[in-house]
Amino acid sequence: MNKMIYRRIILVAAVLLMGCATVLTAQEKRHFREALKLYDYGMYSRSRLFFDDLDDRAKSSDPAAFAVLCDVKQRVPGYKRDMERFIAQNPQSHLIPQIRYAYALNLFDSEDYAGAWAVMKELEEKHLNRSQRVEFVFRKAYCAMEAGEMEAALEGFEKVDKMPVSDYSAPARYTAGYINYG
């Protein structure tokens, strides 16, 4: 598991540093890598401080995107307004799907399935990290079920069942059976 997290950190850092290579100094790149490491470990408050500091100097929108993502994950008061402002000002950011997915998870966790469904319908699985895809498909299907969209829900649960075995496999099978026979 730690190897997978480490590889993901390296991959994300490499991709992001390629985009920031011409605008960040060597020291700023080290700070960015440290911020990403903190972010991956769920230390959003601390990583946000690094991203804020880098955002003032970087010409890339990546540090600002990660700062917004930290706020969304922490549910900082006003995060929705900041998220919408960032998306409007940076529509080209490759991190927008991550931001929207984090927002959808907040809605899901608050049992606002209709709101989460509306956000998730606009997201494409391919724009999320591979490690998030099974969870995304399952939660999207669950939201569809709660919204009364049984065909979309069943399609999603069956898709989870065809993916590699995960913590979502058994619940997906059970829920698909419930829809089919319940």
Notes on the structure:
- With 182 residues, the chain is mainly α.
- The protein has ten helices and no strands.
- Helix 1 runs antiparallel to helix 2, helix 7 (113-121) packs across helix 8 (130-146) and helix 8 (130-146) runs antiparallel to helix 9 (150-162).
- The longest helix is centred in the N-terminal third of the chain and has 19 residues, at 2-20.
- The termini are far apart.
- 32% of the residues are buried.
- The model is unreliable at 18-22 (pLDDT under 50).
Taking the sheet with the most strands, its summary is:
none
- In DSSP terms (H or I, runs of 4 or more residues), the helix count works out at 10
> Considering DSSP H and I runs of 4 or more, what fraction of the residues is helical?
over 70%
Task: Compute the CA-based radius of gyration.
Answer: 18 Å
Quaternary form: single chain
Task: Count the E strands.
Answer: 0
Mean pLDDT: 88
Estimate the global geometry from the Cα principal axes.
Answer: elongated
> Which secondary-structure class do the elements indicate?
mainly alpha
Helix and strand element order: HHHHHHHHHH
